[in-house]
């Protein structure tokens, strides 16, 4: 995997800043002859876009996808698929260049690394970029149509009872604060045998993919962290003979053992931290080192995990389509 693209045989790279004219991606390595159109991509973008309700960023972006290359007469040609979305609702005045760093966002790190950055809406670090991951993920899904991928929010601010989420988010909005979330992403229909036994293990690829999503601070596969407290007898996934494939009596491994899929559901849980851009004052410093509290304006998600869920699906699809192509190349 190179630093600027994601994947081995199916490679995604994205471009664009949150307040620039547009964002886009190139997805290379997609097999030829797959039926595709903009509607097949748009349906997933509509699940992630901002401006759809009070619990997500109010920035109004229709996220209308345009396919620019790699498709002819409704089918993929096997060449690089280029796609783009115009940014139509940036409000850059909310981000003065001399604003104190937002602790937890990328401002300080980017300045330390590059000495210079686009401060408008987080620039390249804004999760606006994840729209193009979702577009790439939609292409990946078409490569593996037999795999069904679905993510859902399991908890908001540690609360698993979803009837309490609305009032929790309402009071946070009033306070100008934010909250974290736990998301679970499951892939069904992955056959046994995808992945690799050492280094590029399927679980390692998934962990890297999920961890590359902005605001993700934890990734678990199957039993995950809880496995550390179990006995071998409790954590085993006992096997019985089945008609066509083995029948597993449990799935503590999350569908992966030895870095290779077992044919069971692949289960990944992802911890999203609370949004760092909040209206409550936080101690910070400016680029010149002077201290100042930061109070972030702009339009922000009160709980990034809500719109993060479709992004986890996209990363799952990209990893699995890539692993399918690798498996087909090596084992036929
Ligand atoms: C879908 C999505 C929406 C996000 N929206 C916001 C937001 O409105 N405000 C914000 O400060 N961070 C938001 N984030 C998180 C930041 O992009 C992220 O914290 C920042 O880039 C720093 O990266 P890190 O948290 O991975 O270290 C969002 C993340 C995702 C996945
Ligand atoms: C625009 C989107 O989300 C943005 C993600 C984001 C951030 O800091 O990650 C900050 C906010 O916008 P801005 O970049 O203008 O500060 C969100 O609205 C989007 O997801 O399409």
TrEMBL record:
EC number(s) given by UniProt: 4.2.3.5
InterPro entries noted in UniProt: Chorismate_synth (IPR000453), Chorismate_synth_AroC_sf (IPR035904), Chorismate_synthase_CS (IPR020541)
Residues binding NADP(+): 48, 54
Taxonomic superkingdom: Bacteria
PROSITE patterns: CHORISMATE_SYNTHASE_1, CHORISMATE_SYNTHASE_2, CHORISMATE_SYNTHASE_3
Assigned keywords, A-Z: Amino-acid biosynthesis, Aromatic amino acid biosynthesis, FAD, Flavoprotein, FMN, Lyase, NADP
UniProt pathway annotation: Metabolic intermediate biosynthesis; chorismate biosynthesis; chorismate from D-erythrose 4-phosphate and phosphoenolpyruvate: step 7/7
Cofactor(s) required, per the database record: FMNH2
Family indicated by similarity: Belongs to the chorismate synthase family.
Functional description taken from the UniProt entry: This reaction introduces a second double bond into the aromatic ring system.
Oligomer status and interactors: Homotetramer.
Protein name (record): Chorismate synthase
Organism annotation: Sphingomicrobium sediminis
């Amino acid at each position: 995997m190179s630093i600027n693209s994601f994947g081995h045989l199916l490679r995604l790279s994205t471009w664009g800043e949150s307040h620039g004219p547009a964002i886009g991606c190139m997805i290379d390595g997609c097999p030829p002859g797959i039926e595709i159109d903009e509607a097949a991509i748009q349906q997933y973008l509509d699940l992630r876009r901002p401006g759809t309700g009070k619990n997500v960023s109010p920035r109004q972006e229709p996220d209308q996808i345009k396919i620019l290359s790699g498709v002819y007469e409704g089918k993929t040609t096997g060449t690089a698929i280029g796609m783009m979305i115009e940014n139509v609702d940036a409000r850059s005045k909310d981000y003065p260049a001399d604003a104190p760093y937002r602790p937890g966002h990328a401002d300080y790190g980017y300045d330390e690394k590059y000495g210079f950055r686009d401060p408008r809406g987080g620039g390249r670090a804004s999760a606006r970029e994840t729209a193009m991951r979702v577009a790439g993920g939609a292409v990946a899904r078409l490569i593996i149509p037999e795999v069904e991928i679905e993510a859902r929010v399991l908890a908001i601010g540690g609360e698993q009872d979803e009837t309490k989420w609305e009032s929790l988010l309402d009071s946070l909005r009033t306070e100008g604060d934010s909250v974290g979330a736990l998301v679970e992403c499951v892939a069904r229909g992955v056959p046994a045998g995808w992945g690799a036994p050492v280094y590029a293990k399927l679980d390692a690829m998934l962990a890297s993919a999920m961890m590359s999503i902005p605001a993700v601070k934890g990734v678990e596969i199957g039993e995950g962290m809880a496995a550390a407290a179990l006995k071998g007898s409790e954590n085993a996934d006992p096997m019985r003979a089945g008609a066509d494939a083995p029948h597993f009596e449990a799935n503590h491994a999350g569908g992966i053992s030895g870095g290779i899929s077992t044919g069971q559901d692949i289960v990944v849980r992802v911890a999203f931290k609370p949004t760092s851009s909040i209206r409550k004052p936080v101690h910070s410093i400016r680029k010149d080192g002077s201290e100042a509290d930061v109070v972030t304006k702009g339009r922000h998600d009160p709980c990034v995990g809500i719109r993060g869920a479709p992004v986890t699906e996209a990363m799952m699809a990209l990893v699995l389509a890539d692993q399918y192509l690798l498996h087909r190349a090596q084992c036929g």
